[in-house]
Recover the amino acids of this structure.
């Protein structure tokens, strides 16, 4: 009798605890559901950085029906109550391309280093709530991810995108060959897969898109991301802390692009702590499946003279890391290791976001390591140095999320590459 009474008391407490847990949990999940509801006819969202990201960003989506939506945004979170946002912006440009109606809003005069909240409203309803962070305009540490070649295997691409979401960098530099065939179906899939970079609260990771050789139509990158016609650009983050060059290896490296690059570096190189460039085709692929000395090799001298610190390459479908090197006609591949030369450049790459892997069967005396696996580079930019970890795209479901207060601390379950059993973390000191 006593035992039975005890059991019924325990049961009562368990039920009470459950009821109170549910009561506490219910409003939060209802809020998440409401925040993620999309009653508008919009989809395939991407936030693009290619000009001053401290004050400017381009938001792009596909309008499925009706007139283009209006973007409602502001520094205060209003969730999906579009009328409460302090600002609204109409589309600057609409492009019908690849069976989609790509709508572009260029957000300007944003406050640096700030969180913005937003939603879209059209004739049908309201999109889910989104938010993103503008880049800081004063030197402060941040992380970014760089990688490319997501062409063929959607499972790897989706896993890599999911891992981006978990690592929550300030932005993602995507160095080309998003798709294999430059057509409507593949772009539709790619843009759907990109949605996996957005977390359940609606955090948009800005993308800096680069053109690869599989973006065979020169207008694909401009029409899907709002990039300028020739798909090259530069922007700074943290004042003089960091300047990033989006380069296009599919048009001449010299010519107008080369003149612009030299001119921009001449104006900015001396004052900037970390100079970084990204482009698709590597100067010297670490696989025998590709020819050496390709179009971008023409940039080597420009990089060296300006003291470019880091170049991110793609296209070969292997992973590699080099020592700081400088052009030298008598060196292997036309370069020589120069670890103590402040003008030397470290090269990373070469594109393993789901493209068919190749054998890493080419190495130079200045190669730190080259291997064949899916991965991307995760970089921490600080006033003292840049740090690189090469992250393997494996067991992504088991990898934890970063703690936003420690944005470069390894989450549980992450696998990092240690080239030739050496250091997982590469340090590129400030000059
Ligand atoms: Fe390529």
């Amino acid at each position: 009798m006593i035992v039975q009474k005890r059991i019924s008391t325990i049961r009562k407490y368990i039920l009470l605890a459950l009821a109170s847990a549910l009561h506490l949990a219910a409003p939060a999940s209802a809020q998440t559901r409401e925040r993620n509801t999309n009653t508008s006819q919009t989809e395939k969202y991407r936030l693009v950085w290619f000009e001053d990201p401290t004050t400017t960003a381009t938001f792009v989506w596909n309008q499925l029906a009706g007139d283009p939506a209006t973007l409602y945004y502001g520094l205060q979170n209003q969730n999906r109550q579009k009328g409460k946002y302090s600002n609204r912006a109409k589309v600057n440009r609409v492009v019908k391309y690849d069976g989609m109606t790509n709508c572009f809003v260029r957000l300007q005069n944003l406050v640096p280093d700030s969180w913005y909240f937003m939603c879209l409203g059209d004739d049908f309803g309201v999109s889910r709530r989104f938010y993103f962070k503008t880049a800081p305009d004063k030197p402060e540490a941040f992380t970014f991810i760089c990688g490319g070649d997501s062409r063929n295997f959607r499972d790897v691409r989706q896993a890599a995108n999911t891992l981006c979401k978990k690592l929550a960098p300030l932005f993602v530099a995507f160095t080309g060959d998003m798709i294999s065939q430059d057509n409507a179906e593949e772009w539709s899939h790619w843009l759907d897969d990109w949605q996996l970079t957005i977390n359940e609260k609606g955090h948009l990771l800005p993308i800096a898109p680069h053109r690869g050789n599989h973006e065979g139509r020169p207008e694909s990158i401009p029409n899907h991301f709002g990039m300028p016609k020739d798909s090259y650009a530069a922007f700074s983050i943290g004042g003089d802390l960091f300047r990033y060059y989006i380069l296009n290896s599919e048009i001449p490296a010299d010519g107008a692009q080369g003149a612009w690059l030299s001119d921009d570096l001449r104006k900015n190189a001396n004052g900037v702590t970390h100079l970084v460039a990204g482009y698709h085709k590597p100067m010297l692929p670490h696989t025998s499946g590709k020819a050496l000395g390709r179009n971008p090799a023409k940039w080597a001298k420009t990089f060296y003279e300006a003291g470019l610190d880091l170049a991110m390459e793609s296209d070969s479908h292997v992973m590699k890391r080099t020592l700081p090197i400088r052009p030298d006609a008598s060196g292997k591949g036309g370069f020589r290791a120069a670890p103590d030369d402040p003008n030397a450049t470290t090269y990373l790459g070469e594109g393993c976001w789901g493209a068919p892997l190749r054998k890493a069967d080419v190495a130079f005396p200045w190669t730190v390591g080259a291997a064949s696996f899916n991965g991307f580079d995760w970089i921490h930019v600080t006033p003292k140095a840049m740090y690189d970890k090469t992250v393997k795209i494996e067991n992504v479901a088991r990898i934890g999320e970063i703690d936003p207060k420690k944005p470069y601390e390894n989450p549980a379950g992450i696998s990092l590459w240690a080239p030739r059993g050496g250091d997982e973390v590469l340090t590129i000191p400030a000059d």
In short: The first helix runs from residue 2 to 35. The longest strand covers residues 100-107. Helices lie at 2-35, 154-167, 184-194, 220-225, 255-268, 300-306. The radius of gyration is 23 Å.
